[in-house]
Amino acid sequence: MMKKNNNQKKNNPRTPRPREDELRSLDSQLGSFGIEPPKVYRRQEQQGRTPAKQPANRRASGARQNPPRTPQERVKQQNQKRRLKKKFRRALTAITLVMLVIVVLVTLSLTVLFKIDTVKITGNEKYSAKQITAVLPIEKGNNLFTCDTKGAKKKLELNLPYIYNADITRKFPSTINVAITETKTIYRIKNPDKSYTLLDDNFKVLEEHAAKAPSGSVEIKKAVVDKATAGTTVELSNKKTLDYLKRICQTINAVNMKKVTAIYSKDINNNYIVYDNRITIKLGAIDKAEQKLYSALAAIDKLEKTNPAAHGEITATSDKQIYFTEK
Length: 327
Description:
- By secondary structure, this protein is α/β, with parallel strands linked by helices.
- It contains nine helices and 14 strands.
- Helix 8 (239-255) packs across helix 9.
- The protein starts with a helix and ends with a strand.
């Protein structure tokens, strides 16, 4: 029974044949006319796929790459290219000319133009204008732009120690202004030969062997000078002593103390301020020196009312316990 059904299926003309039979039949029919099916069609049919569609962007790019179809469009496109090239050449030429002008102007300003013909010095008392110009490395005829104002400032302050600050500025078209701020002697150290080393408030050496001590200067006692070069910071035999002295001076300035006649430091725990050549304030350790000095000045105010000519020592090693020992 099963064999009969199978034979019926094979002999039934309405039963669809496989795909291979259809292609084979098509090949045999076309072959009789000498026509061969397209290879792409045959390959795609064998694989059971339809032709893939090209991406829209690829079609668009291909359309853009296609040349103009008409002669008029080709001429128009060529004209546009010529105009763009012409604009580019003009822009490049303009930029080149501008750069050339800038280079010429800079070269002229650094070589020919802006020559210094005036050096104006103000604020000087200790030194004459002739002394300052002799040290100043900026001269007439130099270029206003290329002159080294910072280097000139350092040279003036080093070689002329009483110049506390030299403000050097340019004024167009051809002037250099030198504004001098001079310093006074703030501290003095007595040397073994009875001369004095004079210092400013930054302990810069003003003079190495002055014959007299300027009035109003504060004496630094018990300090031995190791090296003193005018224009540079003094060097003491005990390197740490200078740090302690600076701390004492900072404390004096912080409380705005007046009538200070001397200061000295033995070590970190023994620091002193002399008031009006009469009263020595013993601060002790340098820590909390400002609070201790405030307490000592309050004690001096009371003492001035009861005994204005008193001589002695105020011990202010603690800001809470202050006492006076008369001598």
